Amino acid sequence: MPKEFKFPDIGEGITEGEIVRWHIKEGDKVEEHQVVGEVETDKAVAEIPSPYSGIVLKINFKEGETVKVGQTLFVIGEEGEKAIAPKVKAPKFTAAGAVGYLEEAPEEEMKSASVVIKPVTAEPQVLATPIVRNLAKQLNVDMTKITGTGPEGRITEDDVKKSVETKTLPEEKAPAIKITKKYDMWGYVDHMPLKGIRKAIAKHMTESVRHIPHVTTMDEADVNVLVQLRKQEKVKAQEEGIKLTYMPFIMKAIIAALKEFPLLNSTLDEENEDIIVKKYYNIGFAVDVDGEGLVVPVIKYADRKSIFDIAKELQELSDKARERKLDLNDMRGSSFSITNYGSIGGIFATPIINYPDSAILGLGRIYDKPVAIEGKVEIRKILPLSLVFDHRIADGAYATRFLNSVMRQLQDPDKLLET
User: Fold this and answer.
1) How buried is residue 115: exposed, middle or buried, by Cβ count under 10 Å (0-12/13-18/19+)?
2) Is 57 exposed, middle or buried (0-12, 13-18, 19+ CB in 10 A)?
């Protein structure tokens, strides 16, 4: 009996996705759990597994087209069957895991094997790699208006860049190009649609600020010893193919401090008026995705992992984030988060908490600073820290003591290697 595989409601505010590529065609035989394609949402690029074995009777969307939640992606059946359309009636659903679900038409409604599924209204086909698509989104380019010069008409990075050059011409000289440049009373302005990662970030940040009263406390950690230790351990890490940054040490320092001050590893249940103190330590870290915005992958159970284990996972998740290949589960479950604006030169900031966490630690740029030590001035390596916390859960004194604990851990980093 033919079964329809629909694009599922996977939560996280996702309402649609774009077909990146199909690994199948109509008439192909597929096995259960076989990856049949890839779909890109504003969160990540995810693989589409087939929930059943059978013959692909119908594919309703082409590569580059957008599918809405609930629309049928493809139909699976037995050899010799044809895709059919049941009468409109309350559907019967068969679960198929977290990725999707199948709708099975009642037998009494399968009147004719010659009835075909109504065609899906499709957007123009666009052939391009995820990197090119991300570039087009960043430059606000409508890819359906571009003629690809790559193999089989694929759109290249040069095609996107050239379209922007054309787009910047005055409107009267390029009437065929969709212009987003407009006038206000002072001159030209660009109208950029809020979409993709940036739209998801805007929604999440607004939700965080609406729920949480943010308060920031700042301090500076002397990391002279840490800098030397990291330099020493970096050589060992390279021998194992691992890039060792300061982040694993900082995560370990945070975990030690959270065990002393557990309220900052919690969530406030507003409905039931409970503070939910978490006994696990899942640390989220912000990654810049090609200038589009930040995503926050999560190192799960970081307290159970060594410095080198964390460094390896940081590297893998960062690469997946920049390639838009993160699974949604990679970004769920954080209990505390870190953002490193120091990597681009910042010193202090007031980050927004990764809701529903209760705190986030901002890392500034490590710099040389003259410090008075036992009556003498020495040049020390200083790490600026900005802790933003939920004032409903913790007071300033509690948050400051937590930050002091983080600083103590960083000033004696040898212990962090032992945990």
Assistant:
1) middle
2) buried
Provide the pairing of β-strand 283-285 with 274-277.
unpaired
Note if 191 is an active site residue.
Answer: no
Higher pLDDT, 418 or 222: 222
Q: For the ranges 91-95, 316-320, 396-400, which has the lowest average pLDDT? A: 91-95
Which pairing describes strands 359-363 and 336-340: parallel, antiparallel, or unpaired?
parallel
Residue position matching structure tokens 């500034």: 364
CA-atom Rg of the chain in angstroms: 26
Instruction: Compute the average pLDDT of residues 11-31.
Output: 82
- DSSP secondary structure letter of residue 344: G
Convert the pLDDT of each residue in 117-164 to its tens digit.
Answer: 444 444 566 787 777 787 777 777 788 888 888 877 888 877 877 776
Return the bridge partners of 275, or none.
268
In whole angstroms, give the CA distance from residue 401 to residue 262. 12
Burial class (CB in 10 A: 0-12, 13-18, 19+), 36: buried
Alpha-carbon span 105 to 82, nearest angstrom? 13
Work out the percent of the chain whose per-residue pLDDT is above 70: 82
pLDDT surpasses 50 at 114: no
Q: Model's pTM, two decimal places?
A: 0.61
Check 204, 211, 214, 391 and give the catalytic one. Answer: 391
How many C-beta atoms lie closer than 10 Å to residue 112's C-beta? Answer: 9
Two tokens, residue 279:
């006994």
Closest CA to 391 of 381, 399, 402, 379: 399
| Domains located in the chain, CATH noted | 3-109 (2.40.50.100), 130-190 (4.10.320.10), 197-418 (3.30.559.10)
